[in-house]
């Protein structure tokens, strides 16, 4: 059977990764979290002091250091998914902090960062049988993907979900901070020059403000099956 490419883009905290992982599991496809790659570069920049907490970025320094950034996904049987490694070390937990979320959009604006990551994402998807989520997957990374989704939800629903996720992980952060971070990231991600967050013309829009994960999964899976059945 043909192994297709499924692109899932959308706003921050719109539930992309949950659905992408669910689809990948059901289809026995590879799941690629492209946001984790941008987050890992942001973590590298923080560690190398190329960006500070106030959002000042040494762009030239980052570009010059990019050849020291080596990203891979390593399968973790415990989580059932590929987890991001930065220079050989699993950083899946470290990249989910609020500190990384605060600077990742600045890092993702840098053209040389996007060029490097897009190329690597295209190589990972070359054989098909992948579900990739991000912001520019259906438009730039995999413009020929066989199925494309664009996920969205109200600002309230997204902030509530991300806040609950951070609390579950034991982080202390206010709902107001989470809401402000999502709004700021969506603004930077949608207005940047290269690879902005944008709905592909042929993407199916899923507004999941009032849909359960099961309802979204059923709907998305039925569209994928239709495509697979020709
Ligand atoms: O999906 P996420 O929230 O983990 O992504 C983190 C950041 O990475 C997001 O604010 C924008 C950036 N990103 C991007 O620019 N392009 C992608 N394909 C994926 C993520």
Question: What is the name of the CATH superfamily?
Answer: P-loop containing nucleotide triphosphate hydrolases
N- and C-termini, Cα separation: 11 Å
Radius of gyration: 17 Å
Please identify, by name, the CATH architecture: 3-Layer(aba) Sandwich
* Strand segment count: 8
SS content category: alpha/beta
Q: What is the CATH topology assignment?
A: Rossmann fold
User: What share of the residues lie within helices?
Assistant: 40-55%
Strand order of the largest sheet: 2-6-1-7-8
Q: What general form does the structure show? A: globular
Q: How would you spell out the order of helices and strands?
A: EHEHHEEEHHEHEHHEH
Write structural notes for this entry.
The protein has a single domain (5-214), classed as Rossmann fold (3-Layer(aba) Sandwich), CATH 3.40.50.300. The chain is 48% helix and 17% strand. The protein has helices spanning 16-27, 34-47, 59-65, 98-108, 111-125, 137-141, 155-168, 175-191, 213-228, and strands at residues 5-10, 30-33, 71-76, 81-86, 89-90, 130-134, 147-152, 204-207. Strands 2-6-1-7-8 form a 5-stranded parallel beta sheet, with helices on both faces. Strands 3-4-5 form a 3-stranded antiparallel beta sheet, covered by helices on one side. Helix 2 packs across helix 5, helix 4 packs parallel to helix 8 and helix 7 (155-168) packs across helix 8. The longest helix is centred in the last third of the chain and has 17 residues, at 175-191. The structure holds 2'-deoxycytidine-5'-monophosphate (DC).
């Amino acid at each position: 059977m043909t192994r297709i490419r499924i692109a899932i883009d959308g706003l921050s905290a719109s539930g992309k990764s949950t659905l992408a992982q669910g689809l990948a599991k059901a289809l026995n496809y590879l799941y690629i979290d492209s946001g984790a790659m941008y987050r890992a570069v942001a973590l590298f920049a923080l560690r190398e002091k190329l960006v500070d907490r106030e959002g000042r970025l040494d762009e030239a320094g980052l570009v010059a250091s990019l050849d020291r950034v080596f990203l891979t996904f390593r399968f973790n049987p415990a989580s059932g998914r590929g987890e991001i490694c930065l220079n050989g070390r699993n950083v899946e937990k470290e990249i989910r902090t609020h500190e990384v979320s605060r600077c990742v959009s600045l890092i993702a604006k840098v053209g040389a960062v996007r060029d490097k990551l897009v190329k690597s994402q295209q190589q990972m998807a070359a054989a098909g049988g992948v579900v990739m989520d991000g912001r520019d997957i259906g438009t730039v990374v995999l413009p020929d993907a066989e199925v494309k989704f664009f996920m969205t939800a109200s600002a309230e629903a997204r902030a509530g979900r991300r806040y609950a996720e951070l609390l579950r992980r034991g982080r202390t952060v206010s709902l107001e901070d989470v809401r402000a971070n999502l709004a700021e990231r969506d603004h930077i991600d949608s207005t940047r020059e290269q690879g902005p967050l944008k709905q592909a013309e042929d993407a199916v829009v899923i507004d999941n403000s009032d849909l359960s994960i099961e309802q979204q999964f059923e709907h998305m899976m039925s569209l994928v099956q239709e495509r697979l059945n020709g």
